[in-house]
Structure formats: C-alpha cells, structure tokens
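Following up on my earlier thread - several people asked me to post the actual chain instead of describing it. Fair enough. Here it is, all 403 residues.
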Amino acid sequence: MTERCDAIWRGARLATMAEGRPGLGVVEDGLIAARGGVILYAGAAAAAPGFDAETIVECDGRWITPGLIDAHTHLIFGGDRAAEFELRLAGAAYEEIARAGGGIVSTMRATRRAPQEALTTAALPRLDALIAEGATTVEVKSGYGLRLEDELKSLRAAKALAQERDVTILTTLLAAHAVPPEYAGDAEAYVDLICEEIIPAAAGEHLADAVDAFCETIAFSRDQVRRVFEAARRCGLRVKLHAEQLSNSGGAALAAEFSALSADHLEHLDAAGVAAMAKAGTVAMLLPGAFYATRETLAPPIAALRAHGVPMALATDCNPGTSPLTSLLLTMNMAATLFRLTIDECLAGTTREAARALGRLDQVGTLEPGKRCDLAVWNVERPAELVYRMGFNPLHARIWSGR
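Reply from S.P.:
Thanks for posting it. Predicted structure:
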C-alpha cells in the first residue's frame, strides 16, 4: 500500500547524524519522505515503504544533512564595536577594554537607545547570513539591555525574527551578562533585580526558553550565578552558562550542579569541571570564533572532554565585540583547525549536539522519523568539504519544516 506524503527527496546521500549509527550515520542511496513538516522516513531507498507525493525532488547524488543549528548567538544588539577591534589589534586585552567602559557596556548603551523594531531589522542581515548557509534553528540571547524594559525588549525583538524568516528562533535571557553602570559597585543589587523582576517577567510573558549568565571575574561570581539559576528554576526555566572563558571560576561545575543544558567557551575548564559535566550530561559549547577573535592561546581541553564522553557542540557566538561571525561553515573550519576536532565532531557539533545543547534533540538535529523536516542539501562530493573549505558556500537547498 502506498503512503501519501507531502514531499520526497530521493537519489541523495544522507548524513543522518543519528545516534547509534557509526560516524555520520551515512546512507549512500537515501530517501527522505515528509508530511506535515515532519520526517516520515529517512533511510535507504531500497528499504523504504511505498510513498507517493506531489513534490518529488531528485537530488542527483547530493548530500543531505540535518539543517544546521546555531545554538549560541547574540544576534540582537545596537551599534557595533569595530573601534574595539582596532584597540585589540594595538594590543589591548578584552578585560582591559571592558574595565575601561567598553565591551558589553558599550553595546548596552546603543541597545537601550534602539527601538525594538530597529533591533529586529538590524539583526536580519546577520540571521540571513546564517540561513544562507543552511541554518534552520538559531538561539538568540538578550544581554545588552541590562535592565527590565530593555532585556524584555531584546527578547521580543529576537522572537520577531521568526515572523520575518522561515527559521526556528529560541530565546535565552542573559540579563546576568554584565553589571550595568547604574549598579556599579553593587552587583548584588543588580542580581536582586534579575532574580526578583527580570526572570519572573520574562517567564511570565513566555519570552525566554532558558536563562544564561556570565560567570567570570569581570562579570558575576559563582554565588551570584547560583542565585540567578535558583530564580530560573523557580520559574521553570532551564539554564546554561558562559563559563571558564577568561579564567577558571568553577562555573562549569556549578552549571552541571543545576543540570545545565550547556557550559559555553571553556578554555580554562579543569578536570573537575569536565567530570561534573560528564556526570550531569551538560553539553560543552565550543566557540572558536571568540577564541580566534580574542587571540586566545589556551584551547578548551578537547582530549579530556572526549575521554569523559562530554558531548561537544559548536556555535558562532555571533556578537559585536568578540565574535562578529555569521558563518557556521567557517565555525566548523575553525574548530577543526584551532581545536583539532574531527570532521564527524564538527558536523555533529552543528547538528545533533547543538540540538542537545538547546534541549531540542527530540525535535531536530538528526534525520530520523518524527523529527521536524529541517534539511540542508549540499553540492559536495564528501561531507569533509563542509569543514575543509573557507569562504565558500556549497548549499544547494534549505528546507525548513518541510518547505
């Protein structure tokens, strides 16, 4: 009996990324069938049941991967920080610039001035660059408003992106990104505001899918982050953390204690943090764009993460100061070159493990029945080309939710 579906892609080579299959989960003569935006079948054409559809796409041997996922971005912001880039070229350190009133606080001023609609409009070209390379799911953080009305404005601006483009947008509240000038010298009072007003308001309006924080000497202490995480838990929100980027603050272990979705950056991660993440199932979110842009020299402990079986995701960390990057393809190349990740790890990091880092692996990230039909179709001879090339986009077609 023939089963009716909306669309069929056939004559493709599939990198299913499915767990339990070796490597990329390759199917050489593959077929994908979808209905209602959901995959019905993804596997060998010879083993497929009978399908019929009005739309049948002949892939002519092209590769299909899951749609790419950028699981850590700061797409919503006002202004830019090109001047700070010049300062870093002249030898200034990121921490030095931040303490002098630059960095996050500089972007905060421009973001506060900008209307919500202007923030969305400014972010669209950055989002379009990701979409043009096959991204179908993008996480977007707040964190440049640093007060109630502007954090909520930023989250609304991020959600509005999904009304402008065919893409899944997930939002993260990052009010604990920096201490705003009006709370200088009194970070505890700002944390009170985050916990008592900003998190409950964002949760009440369903503006945030998760809560993030920056645990660092120039940002928030472990005790302050713990308060933020406890407030998020009271509001039913999952957490993630910027951890161990500039120093070993013990943030990764704290994130693991709260079963965080991910701990991000991790250049200064120690053995105890790796073990805690492994036990908790917290994903290591690696951000080679920031490593590159800030000219870091200490790479995350990749060998230890591998040895402990900690899942590794990759993301652009697109932001105006330390990673003005809007290419997941270049992110993969950087991860391979700078961090020595394998081809399989890079592709898993922008699909399956990125989905895991967002708590969405049940919906996206692999080519399997029941998952949303988010596909990237590539003009490549082998998947390694997606990691190997720089400044070249071999995307043939992008399918989001079956269309």
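The chain is about 35% helix and 25% strand. That should answer part of your original question.
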